[in-house]
Amino acid sequence: MTERRRLAVIGAGPAGLTAALAAAARGVLVTLVDSAPQAGGQFYRQTAPELGARRPQALHHQWRTWERLRDGLAAHIGAGRVTHLTGHHVWFVERQSGTSTADDTARGSFAVHALLGPEQEEPVTVHADAVLLATGGYEKVLPFPGWTLPGVVTAGGAQAMLKGGLVLPGRTAVVAGAGPLLLPVAVGLASAGAKVAALVESADPRNLARQARVLAAHPAKLAEGARYAAELARHRVRAQVRSTVVAAHGTGRLEAVTVASLDGDGRVRPGTGRRVPCDTLAVGHGMLPHTDLAEALGCRLDGVAVAVDDEQRTDVPGVWAAGEATGIGGAALASAEGRIAGLSIAARLDSRTPGRSSYASAAKARAGLREFFAAVDTVCAPPAHWTEQVTDDTVVCRCEEVPASAIREAVDELGAGDVRTVKLLTRAGMGWCQGRMCGPAVAGLARCPETPSRRPFARPVPLGVLAREPGEPS
């Protein structure tokens, strides 16, 4: 009897879940590895069961899609086709296809190394014949004076607090930055009882008219935006476009922000600053793909995202990628990519070429949504001259407490021309997060391209785990 092939899916968001279900339905044994206590990812982040949320669907849209994914996962787990490992933080994926031992051949071509437990110190290894990277994305953070005050959170962080813990980050909030995430965050906070004093968007809505052809091809997305706008109007949330937060103020914690208008070049208009009292600022400037595991495996990147072909395959044999890791585009795009990846993996592990007709509808959705979000990205970008508002004493790298003045000195006086040289001269990016948070800011201040930094591991690892003898069981 032929042994069933095994797939490790890293990430249980829309892409990972959809791929796992598609592959499992076609006979693949799937291990779904995720750091969260429940499936769903950030988009479908679930409230902790012990909180007893009576209407969790009120915190989400596309709830019926989530129910289908949730119920499908439960059915496959019950049938033994999927193993769902929660609380597993993957730090490295090891290719074993080059080894020649019979034991490695029997266990699979890849070893997925994770950390388990409250302290993330218990090592666990999952062996598989193929790997799908559905690692999602993370928020792009840009500094400004006062951004380190308690009460200043990322837009996604505010959403996670609300969805996962039923917690409001404050009573009076300003939601600011750039991008479509601001709308659901503002609506979510207002619906949960917070006063949203302002929604501050740096983009110029008039630029959307230049993308009318692309946007018109997605009436469902336009309807979704209209629903958010109606909710904001119902809660009397004031929207300020072509504006930005230039500073946060407070003694000990956030008390107010200064909002100013932007001119056509993305510069702050002198004399337009207005102080808005608040105890919470939820700020975001878009998202970036998580590519650490892909880079460590040697996968090629396309800009800052993992490069894939029409089947969501990377250029590393046996490795697929789907969702935000291949480019930011939301849950629907992630699900389309996940389905294509799941079908491709099931066929390829069976030594077959997947028929394009099997994923034709998903491919059509993928193409349209990629075009849609490419158009949105051209409009919803951070202000072009945001660095001009960063004062010299503004902390840029919070881990190492590196101010903007040190970065500017490294560039202007010491001749640094790239992020790596700035890091060596200032320690910016050498801290716990390894530059994941401050990387875009350092690149902006250094006036150099924003490029991913290849790291050996995707997260900090205890030395005791690294010191284990090669081949020692986990």
UniProtKB/TrEMBL annotation:
The keyword Repeat does not apply. Residues 6-338 form the FAD/NAD(P)-binding domain. Residues 395-444 form the BFD-like [2Fe-2S]-binding domain. SUPFAM superfamilies: FAD/NAD(P)-binding domain. It is an enzyme of class 1 (oxidoreductase). Coiled coil: none annotated. The keyword Protease does not apply. Keywords: Oxidoreductase. InterPro entries: BFD-like_2Fe2S-bd_dom, BFD-like_2Fe2S-bd_dom_sf, FAD/NAD-bd_sf, FAD/NAD-binding_dom, Metab_Enz_Cyan_OpOx_G3PDH, Opine_Oxase_asu/HCN_bsu. It holds the Pfam family Pyr_redox_2. GO terms for molecular function: oxidoreductase activity. Gene3D superfamilies: BFD-like [2Fe-2S]-binding domain (1.10.10.1100), FAD/NAD(P)-binding domain (3.50.50.60), NAD(P)-binding Rossmann-like Domain (3.40.50.720). Its EC number is 1.5.99.-. This is NADPH-dependent 2,4-dienoyl-CoA reductase/sulfur reductase-like enzyme. It comes from Streptomyces umbrinus. The lineage of its organism: Bacteria, Bacillati, Actinomycetota, Actinomycetes, Kitasatosporales.
